[in-house]
Amino acid sequence: MEDNKTMTGATEAGTSGAEVGAVGLDIGTSRIVMAGGPNGHRAKSQLNAFVGVPYSKMTESILQQNKMVYHRDGKELFVFGNDSERFASFFNAVPRRPMQHGVLNPQEPMGQQIIQAIIETVVPKSRSNELLCFSVPGKGEGADTNLVYHEAVLKNFLSTLGYESKAINEGLAVVFAELQNENFTGIGISCGGGMCNVCVAFLSVPMLTFSIPLGGDYIDSSVASVVDEPLTRVRLIKEESLDLSRQPKDKISSALHIYYEEVINTLVDKLREEFENSRHLPKLDRAIPVILSGGTAKPRGFLQKFEAAIKSGGFPIQISDVRLASDPLTATARGCFIAAMSEVR
Amino acid sequence: MSAKSAVSARSAISESRSNAEASKIYSRIVERYAMGIDRPEVRLRFLNNTLAKQAERQLQLQQSLHLFKFLENTRFYDWAMEARLYSTILEEIESLSKTYGGKVKIPKVEIPLLARTYFMVYQSRHVFYGLGVMLTGLLLFGLYSMATWSARNVNTFLAQRYQRGRAPIVVTTSGQGQSTAFAATGAKYLPGYKPEKVWQVEKNSEFERYSNGARIVLKYETDNHPRGYYLIPRGSDSEGAQLRRDPIGIVYHTSESDIVPFISSNNQSIKHRSLGLIEYIQKNKSYNYLIDRYGEIYRIVRDDNAAHHAGHSIWADEKYDYVGLNESFIGICFESTSEAGSLEETLTEAQIMEGRKLTNVLRSRYNIEDVNCTTHGLVSVNPDKLLIAYHHDWVRNFPFEAMGLSDKYKVQPPNMLDYGFSYDEQILDKLGRVLWPGAVAADEEFKRRADRARTNPDLLRRRLRDRYNAQLEKARKLRTPTDDSDNSTLSAQSSITSSTAESGDAGKRRK
Fold it and tell me: Does the B200-502 domain belong in CATH 3.10.180.10?
């Protein structure tokens, strides 16, 4: 076996099928999701995380027996994607993230290699320079400086897979995915692991985009810190049993409520502020909808809390309704797919 | 549409939307049609392309109308923008139909008639461009034609008004239909002007009588020096080599002498004045012939001798130039005069009739071509000042037709055409401010000739004057010392000084 190689014991995207004409790719801090197929309904997703262990023949043998995807780099083995979570709990380790706050994590030396390896598992190789639209965060605190580098590195990598790639704002992608009936007019919000992305679009044209560096990871780490519980346990409770519409029943739930409210309030306040400061918004003569998507928006009660936050302090524009995306985890990828398809001749 | 242009168009949309209320209306229209498209990516494409194109066209229209800003607040602007929008919608829907065919539900478009018309016009714009170019071409051609037509008419009008600028007319010689070299345009309507055959019927010591009724009184006949001149090829710089001694043409003069009204009560006075004139002419050997007011023809200087009637003078036919016409041309003088400035020489009917007879006699006897029958005013020059019409008798109004000759006023005078003599204000004043048509044409032709030779007309004139002087000098050398001594007047007249030029006609009796 070579020293530096990606091996797979399970899923592998391989080459594209005949259906590939355009691809949508959501490159989020916590997940990488691909939407493709005739209607964009075929989705593949991998956790954007990895776990590194020292190389040994026995470890590698275990990985192969369990059909896990891993990457060997010298004397280290890296298990990444969905398997990383299972592997982390197996070894009681904390998964590492190639991205942070929506862009490549500069403190993670293996970040680029791992993210490439993950993308290769979800995106088929292009045969004829097809168009791939991938999501990028909007400008905001923490994302400004690294955004150009992040976008350039990903474009470069996607071109090696044979794609002509184009970056789409994550919030706009949500608008494309969910606001067809409104002619792509409304507010798309993607609440991901690393940050929340917002886009106000009018007839598909982004009028206002921004991001805040708060997301699922912030909630998880904050809660884990204040309740002194392992991060994986906090995340497990958040994803499986958290209901923000009910009173918290334990310490962890209570902390989760608090940090969720902080994220929601920060998001709504920022949105209000941006509206008030923006000079380029058209004067809307009707109410527009808000679409929430992303893993952080999934817990029960999030929608109601967000709606309440909007209504509580007043809002500069009329909101017709606040909705959760039909599939919050794939909305961004589907939006990217629609954007790519719209440009395919 | 490229990503770059879409982005710029989008920013354009943003800018224009922020300040254009009308954009809202356009957006609603676009939205209405977008709602009919079922697939999201197709709808997105429709919206993106339509709005981007509309924004581009709005910018284009604004740029086009930047000098007419006020139009942006008019109904015309709104209508143009709306029509353009509908046109864009139709274009995009057509494009989608082609791309997706039946896979996508494309809305049935109900578009206002005006907008459909605009779209149709827009689609056929290249045809309209072509038509526009053609119409512009036709318009320009029409304007050009109209301008040239107007200019021609104005020119004709002015020429008629001032009797200037008429094109010279071909003068045919000997009825052979050949044009002279100095004629600028052809004219077939002129008759041949071939002289009738005239022969001598009777001759005695007092007169000669001819078959056309001409009677020539010989009582005052006298000798001068024999004729002698060289044939100078037309337009050449040579002084001529071929010597001739017979007359080649006729120059008509007036005596410019004192006359009294032509009435019966003045008979004695008329006769007396005529006699005085004859004696004067005889003494000075001024002309070959004189026709008095009763039409009597007197031969003064014998035909084979030169008279002093046209000192500095130039004429030409199609082959040769003639300088110093005393030697080569017969001088016929009509006893007449002219009012100062009026240029109207008055002839009696008898003079006209006898003038024609004498002309025919001489033409018949010496085979003189019509082209070489001219008047003193047309041949006279002042070489010092390079001016024409030093003597201006018959510079107008000579009855050429009555003499059976073609109109030489229509011919470009060789002294101007070939030798570059011109005129000045003084000459014009002398001619009553009117040049004869041939002179106008010759003057213009000479300037063109100088242009072709890429030289200054005045320089060319001086060079040609030198040629004239050289030619005249060579002819003068033909005369024997005896001739000169016998004819001191001739010597004086043939010299190249201005004083002699001014006395070119020894026979004229000034008032």
Answer: no
